[in-house]
Amino acid sequence: MEKITKKEFKDLHAAGKISLLQGMVHKDKNEILEILQSMPDIESYARPLSNHGNLTSDRAGNQNIKIYKAGRFIFIENQIDHSKNEYCSRNDTETFNTVYLIN
């Protein structure tokens, strides 16, 4: 998997070259990629986009956004570090991925 910039992702979105496959999956991107690569006719699961959502990382470090590309798939990885949130009693880190298909 290669990292891509937020600008590259936004350019793909603006050009209409990506579709949404799945939003906010609580799994690792590599595990999701394995599942997606084994699915036939993946295009039938793609949905048109109206917006690309929040791509901003939190300055305090509570939330960190990274974007990766693997073949025809783009993953927006959202890591939430609860230990850096003074209003949260949890002390763990969660990772969610939103998956897009390049048309």
Describe the structure using short key phrases.
alpha+beta, 5-stranded antiparallel beta sheet, 2 helices, 5 strands
The global form is: globular
Q: Strand count, sense and closure of the main sheet?
A: 5 strands, antiparallel
Overall pLDDT score: 89
How many domains? The number is 1
Q: Helix count?
A: 2
Strand content: 35-45%
Question: Order of strands in the sheet with the most strands?
Answer: 1-3-4-5-2
**Roughly how many Å apart are the termini?**
18 Å
Unreliable spans are none
Number of strands: 5
Summing up helix and strand content along with how strands pair, one would put the structural category as alpha+beta
Helical amount among residues, as a percent range? 10-25%
Rg result: 14 Å
> Helix and strand string, N-terminal first?
EHEHEEE
Would you kindly provide a written description of the structure presented here, covering whatever features stand out?
- This protein is an alpha+beta fold.
- It has one domain.
- The chain is 17% helix and 37% strand.
- The protein has 2 helices and 5 strands; from the N terminus they run βαβαβββ.
- Strands 1-3-4-5-2 form a 5-stranded antiparallel sheet.
- The protein is globular and about 45 Å long.
